[in-house]
Design brief:
Layout: H1 2-27, E1 31-33, E2 35-38, E3 41-44, E4 53-55, E5 66-70, E6 81-84, E7 102-105, E8 110-113, E9 119-120, E10 130-135, H2 138-142, E11 147-151, E12 154-158, E13 170-174, E14 184-192, E15 198-203, E16 219-223, E17 228-231, E18 237-238, E19 248-254, E20 282-284, E21 304-311, E22 314-322, E23 329-334, E24 339-344
Antiparallel strand pairs: 1-4, 2-3, 5-10, 6-7, 7-8, 8-9, 10-11, 11-12, 12-24, 13-20, 13-23, 14-19, 14-24, 15-16, 15-23, 16-17, 17-18, 19-21, 21-22
């Protein structure tokens, strides 16, 4: 009798394991409606007045936090949307229209965040453009969800802080430092906002989030509102012209011939996640406060390099600086309402 009971329990466990596997298979099954899927190509198969929607089989995760869509044909109206939705999203609604979904729409450049009424966000997209969407990997650890979108690998950043004091700085930093293979990046001012308190430059990996780049040690930056350069100090020096809407600000490093890059954990810089490598996207710096007694005199001396800044493709000046331990990371700061920029971490120029 005992043997029979044991066998019965064994069969139950086998059945339970099979049920779990079946549930998981259904859970991660891709879903689509009014779409034709051919390999990695999706095409709309509706009647122009019906939504076609595709939902991938797996969610974004810390190890897979970004994806891109290339527009091969805009069709008649170009009503293409790229974003994030819950697993069982209604497939007859565009992403971004329903609660708990967000999407960037190619036909009008608007952002739809759980609402059928969108807000102006970025440029329209056409045939050949690549729309990217991702989540800052650090947000997973913090229990937050900060979504970003790109067009042709240029990231769109908008200041959403209060802008009431210097403690309201909005800061974003690249995931990898500049190196001899990727030594330059650019920012285009889409909207200067109220005061154009936009700064771009280089900073150490653990730079505090409540400080503009250039204000604290281990950083150097060019500020758009006054054309000054700040190097580890809250007091800037006259450097170049002020920048306005439409201007492109650039920052790069002139490395010595014998310079050796610092690469953490054996990762290869400047490469794409589709190939299982690291993509240099921006993330939100999560350091809270500046350490006590921080000033330029306390900066640890490292290998000297020449940092240069550009405006609309022309070099406006250079500054010799010491590279902090771990390298110099592209960093963007903003501090007044309405500011919006496009960031290109891998421009063809420079």
């Amino acid at each position: 009798m005992d043997d029979i009971n044991l066998h019965y329990r064994f069969l139950n466990w086998r059945r339970r394991i099979r049920e779990i596997r079946e549930v998981r298979a259904v859970r991660y099954q891709e879903r689509y409606k009014r779409m034709l899927k051919d390999g990695d190509t999706l095409s709309y198969q509706g009647n122009s007045d019906e939504v076609g929607c595709y939902v991938a089989p797996r969610p974004l995760s810390k190890g897979n936090c970004y994806f891109e869509v290339t527009i091969m044909d805009t069709g008649v109206r170009g009503t293409i949307a790229v974003g994030l939705v819950p697993q069982y999203y209604k497939l007859d609604h565009q992403p971004g229209w329903l609660p708990h979904s967000i999407a960037y729409h190619a036909d009008d450049g608007k952002l739809y965040n759980g609402n059928p009424v969108g807000q102006q966000f970025g440029p329209k997209c056409n045939r050949g453009d690549r729309i990217g969407c991702g989540i800052y990997a650090d947000a997973f650890d913090a229990g937050l969800t900060t979504v970003f979108f790109t067009k042709n690998s240029k990231e769109l950043l908008e200041y959403v802080g209060k802008g009431k004091s210097i403690m309201d700085v909005g800061l974003a930093q690249a995931r990898q430092p500049l190196c001899t293979q990727s030594h330059y990046f650019e920012v285009e001012i889409v909207d200067p906002g109220e005061k154009c308190y936009i700064a771009l430059g280089l900073a150490r990996r653990d730079y505090p989030k409540n400080r503009h780049p250039g204000w604290s040690r281990g950083s150097v930056a060019y500020h758009a509102d006054d054309g000054k350069i700040f190097h580890g100090s809250g007091v800037g020096d006259p450097f170049g012209p002020r920048c306005f809407e439409g201007d492109i600000m650039g920052c790069g490093i002139m490395f010595p011939r014998d310079y050796e890059d610092e690469v953490d954990d054996g990762e290869t810089l400047d490469e794409h996640p589709k190939q299982g490598r690291v993509q240099n996207v921006l993330y939100l710096n999560d350091e809270d406060e500046e350490e006590e007694g921080d000033d330029a005199d306390q900066e640890q001396e490292g290998r000297k390099v020449t940092v240069f800044f550009t405006r609309n493709g022309k070099i406006i000046g250079r500054r010799e600086v010491a590279v902090p331990a771990g390298g110099f990371y592209p960093t963007v700061g903003m501090l007044s309402s309405g500011e919006k920029v496009k960031v290109d971490l891998h421009p063809l120029s420079g």
